[in-house]
Structure formats: structure tokens, C-alpha cells
DNA sequence: GCGACAG
DNA sequence: ATCTTGTCGC
């Protein structure tokens, strides 16, 4: 089983202090509230790394609730920062924003690959991107970063709360998006709440583990990867 | 001091 | 995230 844990090289203390301060400031700008109405367009954001020092960020825009692809863009560039648990956004957000500028349509909600507020300082990349663009956003992650939870029931659609072990605060929901598959971690990012985040994730499912926005962003990343190499 | 660690 | 061999099931 999972007897091997990922090894994370020690990060520069000064850098971590600086990034932590930035997250604590951004955290004050996060607003969790009901989304006024359903979105007409929903975007999926995802990044991959064709080489160790380059990043490929993809954004797809789909209609909602139809989930038809209406636009797909990407940006390929260099990556400066290393991956440090808890600071993923500083490594991926810059390039994602460059891809965002290429969009000709304006999505109403952003579904980001990674956590929303289900983060040590409530500033996962989903919240980070939402705050920077001041857009409603949510995070959908495949692995837990922080928090405690009970394994959700086996039935598709089952969910269980992801709680902060210290404060007991609800920071996300663990969702069984597909039977016999490891659950997803859904959390709000900005300008929407947990109920809305989970509802959107559920309504974007089409028989796969991942909701369509992130699934298609992931799919197109594979295609664009051929264009950049 | 001992675990945990998105992508 | 990325790499990688093999296995299972429709």
C-alpha cells in the first residue's frame, strides 16, 4: 500500500516566510457566499510540466449545464519556483493568468485543479486564482493536503465533510464522484460557498472520476503538449 | 519530538 | 507533477 511518502526537499526559509505572509493577506480577501444564480459558462483550469522547468497551463470553457466545450486556450512558459507543499499557487498561478488573458469568452465560475480553502491557511490555488481575478471559484483535488475526514460511502454522489482537526471548521467535502474510485476533495475558492461548490462539481460529472471542466483541461493539456515540444 | 505533505 | 510495466474488464 502507501508505505512510500513523497520526499519534499527543504525549502528556503526566507521564501516560505514571504509567501506565507502573502497568503495571510490574500486570505482576508476571500469571500464565501452563495452564488447568485447558476453559471452560464464554467471554466476548467489545469497545469502540467512538459519538462522540469517549463509549465503548460490550460483553460477550457464549457457551457453550463450543457457542458459543451466552447473555448480552449493555453500558455507555455518557464517555471521559476520549485514545488513546495502549501505554496503550489505561486508556482502555477502566474502562467495560468497568462492563459486566462487569451480567453475571448468570460466564464462565470472557475473550477481549478487543486484545493480551494482546504489548505493550511485557507489559500489553496483555487482560492488564490479566484481572489486575483475576483471571480467565483472552487477547487477540485485528487489528494488531501490538510484536514480530517471519514471515507465517504461507496455509492456515487456520497460525500463526507473535510474538517480542520484543530478548529472543527468545515473546509471542504470529500466526494465519491464515481463508484470504486478514490474520492475527490471539493472546496470553495472565492465568492461561492461549500454547498455551491459541491453542487457544481456534481452537476459537472459525466460518468468519469473528474468533473468535465478539469477533465477536459487535463485532456487538452495532453494535446497541447505536442505543440510545445 | 512525531507525522503530513495539493500538483 | 512525471516516469513506467503489467493487469483487468468492457
Describe the structure.
This protein is an alpha+beta fold and 229 residues long. The chain has a single domain, classed as 2-Layer Sandwich (archaeoglobus fulgidus dsm 4304 fold). The chain contains 5 helices and 8 strands; from the N terminus they run H-E-E-E-H-E-H-E-E-E-E-H-H. A hairpin with a 6-residue loop joins strand 6 and strand 7. The protein starts with 12 loop residues before the first helix and ends with a helix. It binds 2 DNA strands through strand 1 and helix 2. Its main location: cytoplasm. One of its GO terms (biological process) is DNA repair. Belongs to the endonuclease V family. It is found in: Cytoplasm.
**Strands in their spatial order, largest beta sheet:** 3-2-1-4-5-8-7-6
Low-confidence stretches: none
First-last Cα distance: 35 Å
Q: Helical segment tally?
A: 5
Total strands = 8
Q: What gyration radius follows from the Cα positions, in whole Å?
A: 17 Å
Mean pLDDT: 96
Task: Tell me about the largest β-sheet.
Answer: 8 strands, mixed
Could you give me the name of the CATH homologous superfamily? Answer: archaeoglobus fulgidus dsm 4304 superfamily
**H-E string:** HEEEHEHEEEEHH
Secondary-structure content class: alpha+beta
Assign the CATH class: Alpha Beta
Strand content: 25-35%
Enter the CATH topology name. archaeoglobus fulgidus dsm 4304 fold
What helical percentage do the residues reach? 25-40%
Gross geometry: globular
The total tally of domains equals: 1
CATH architecture: 2-Layer Sandwich
Amino acid at each position: 500500500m502507501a508505505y512510500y511518502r513523497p520526499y519534499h526537499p527543504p525549502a528556503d526559509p526566507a521564501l516560505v516566510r514571504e509567501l506565507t505572509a502573502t497568503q495571510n493577506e490574500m486570505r482576508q480577501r476571500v469571500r464565501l457566499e452563495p452564488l447568485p444564480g447558476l453559471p452560464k459558462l464554467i471554466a476548467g483550469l489545469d497545469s502540467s510540466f512538459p519538462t522540469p522547468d517549463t509549465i503548460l497551463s490550460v483553460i477550457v470553457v464549457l457551457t453550463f449545464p450543457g457542458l459543451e466545450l466552447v473555448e480552449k486556450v493555453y500558455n507555455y512558459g518557464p517555471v521559476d519556483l520549485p514545488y513546495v507543499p502549501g505554496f503550489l499557487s505561486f508556482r502555477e498561478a502566474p502562467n495560468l493568468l497568462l492563459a486566462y488573458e487569451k480567453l475571448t469568452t468570460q466564464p462565470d465560475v472557475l473550477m481549478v485543479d487543486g484545493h480551494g480553502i482546504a489548505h493550511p491557511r485557507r489559500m489553496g490555488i483555487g482560492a488564490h486564482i479566484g481572489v486575483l481575478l475576483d471571480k467565483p471559484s472552487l477547487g477540485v483535488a485528487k489528494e488531501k493536503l490538510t484536514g480530517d475526514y471519514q471515507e465517504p460511502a461507496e455509492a456515487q454522489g456520497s460525500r463526507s465533510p473535510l474538517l480542520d482537526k484543530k478548529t472543527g471548521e468545515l473546509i471542504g467535502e470529500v466526494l465519491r464522484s464515481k463508484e470504486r474510485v478514490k474520492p475527490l476533495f471539493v472546496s470553495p475558492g472565492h465568492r461561492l460557498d461549500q454547498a455551491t461548490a459541491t453542487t457544481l462539481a456534481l452537476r459537472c460529472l459525466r460518468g468519469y472520476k473528474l468533473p468535465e471542466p478539469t477533465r477536459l483541461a487535463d485532456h487538452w493539456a495532453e494535446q497541447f503538449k505536442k505543440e510545445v515540444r
